[in-house]
Amino acid sequence: MKRYRNGEIWDFEHEVAVPTNRQVILGLDGGTTSTVCVCISIMPFSDALPDPLPLLARAVAGCSNHNSVGETVAKETLEQVMADALSKSGSNRSAVRAVCLAVSGVNHPTDQQRILTWLRDIFPSHVKLYVRNDAVAALASGTMGKLHGCVLIAGTGTIAYGFTEDGREARAAGAGPVLGDWGSGYGIAAQALTAVIRAHDGRGPQTMLQSTILQTLGLSSADELIGWTYADPSWARIAALVPVVVSCAEAGDEVANKILKEAVQELALSVKAVVQRLGLCGEDGKNSFPLVMVGGVLEAKQRWDIGREVMEFISKDYPGALPIRPKVEPAVGAALLAWNEFMKECLQEPYRR
Amino acid sequence: MKRYRNGEIWDFEHEVAVPTNRQVILGLDGGTTSTVCVCISIMPFSDALPDPLPLLARAVAGCSNHNSVGETVAKETLEQVMADALSKSGSNRSAVRAVCLAVSGVNHPTDQQRILTWLRDIFPSHVKLYVRNDAVAALASGTMGKLHGCVLIAGTGTIAYGFTEDGREARAAGAGPVLGDWGSGYGIAAQALTAVIRAHDGRGPQTMLQSTILQTLGLSSADELIGWTYADPSWARIAALVPVVVSCAEAGDEVANKILKEAVQELALSVKAVVQRLGLCGEDGKNSFPLVMVGGVLEAKQRWDIGREVMEFISKDYPGALPIRPKVEPAVGAALLAWNEFMKECLQEPYRR
């Protein structure tokens, strides 16, 4: 990404002729690998979502998790990707009504407040700003902007996040590999690597994972696997081995099957913890609620379908859980969320208009 | 540590007057936090160890694990600490008969060969050189230089390493936290941190670890624990929480007790895997063999004695296991090992002398 001196990011604004009645919303999804910003146009006081969505522009940048890249780079990345999306859509900041920034690494109100503070500096004071954990955008991408129900994300990491209709929220997992995200892609693959070492040194049973993983990585012995594992701290690199584990399980390997079954239980447990705490299932446990499922681990590309198994597990306890596979990306979810919240605030505060 | 230009490390040698009949051995223990080198004097062709040991000097430097600090720094650190020990003992390289370098991160013959190659450049060609995993020095520190039996190390990390009297060797664990070293100090503490998160988000039972760990770390909520965990990648920083887990277990906390019991099983399993593969217990399982136990996790400073529990577990299967708590440090173990091997080679190769 091109780096600008302070302010230059917005130089394009002097050159665009924005239609006077244009009103837009920005939705951002900032994950650990990339950041996506979409710009959609809105019709104020219309309460139904147009179909197709009036998506004006989409821009992509690098990582914007402040825990990974530091605050300065994270800020610059986010500001740049918003400017790109606005520029591409032929708009400027005066057309913006609301921004929803959904970013990983927002685990605490202090994280949220810090990001809100500098977002406040970029936009005029009447612009509505929302800062959320990226899981919230994933939920909104399945519910078309409504914060109700539960989302389960299982990619490299995993998290379950839920909302009641009256605005209470709860999460489970999402604490990273050291703190027990055992159903994540990283968790599954690390268990498989561990099984290889344990079979090799006599602590565990023999498994097809030994030859399959070593072959996949081009290694000649389990001892070399130790060097491979610590040569690069990227969690995604390890999580990329999930399809190998699934293949071994499909071929009947018991160790691989056990790893996947335990991952299914862990993922279902995260959802149950959220549903339970929020009472999403009602008192009799049968109320219906949306359950949005997102992430590579839950997308069945093979016969052993982790997502389906998780859903079966959850349905036993909560027959009202309605599985949803989102049709739009999380950045659009963030934009829809901003739209929804913006509309609610407009209706509640007519005196301000 | 002072950095020298190539060769300057050995400048002191021109200034020492070494007694012509002096013969010394260097033992090095290179761990992930520090490197210790001892210099002991030897009497050639004497087969009993003198008591007390003729320890001439001891020098300490930083980390020399090439996986952690890179090859260049590791080499420089090792060369410097050897020069310091020789200088302090009033010796130089011409007095050296053998060197045993026991260093963490030696997991594969290629690691060993690489280190041997540059060690070869430092010393005259008649000097015997031995490069070993640091676990081997810990074993030798308990057996006074003899490579027979099994050592269990449980500090920040854990490994079990064993030798038969005829020179076969085997190891279990020692593959780091990603690859299933679950009985290590890091493993125990990470399980405890995970239990705090799981109790907080509803996936796990309530536990005394929640308030105790947060208080110890000066944090006000479990959410803050996520930031604390990933703020610093040091495994030792997390492993330092083991005494808190032990205290909670002693106070009757079930979650903490379960974590410690599982760690005991894991540690015992590592030893059993080594004993089994080497047949150290003989065919009837009752042969006696030394079992050297080393590391903070196995040193009982509290009532809940992990080392004793591990030993009880092992004794059930192998009544001949003879527990040894070393009285000398691993660097001395490395020196004794070099001495032992040097004597054996002298006896086998009289024509070379």
From TrEMBL, chains A, B:
InterPro entries reported in the protein's UniProt record: ATPase_BadF (IPR002731), ATPase_NBD (IPR043129), Euk-type_GlcNAc_Kinase (IPR052519)
All residue ranges annotated as the ATPase BadF/BadG/BcrA/BcrD type domain in the record: 26-338
One function term, GO molecular function aspect: N-acetylglucosamine kinase activity
Coiled-coil ranges per UniProt: none
EC number of this enzyme: 2.7.1.59
Stated family: Belongs to the eukaryotic-type N-acetylglucosamine kinase family.
Protein name, UniProt field: N-acetyl-D-glucosamine kinase
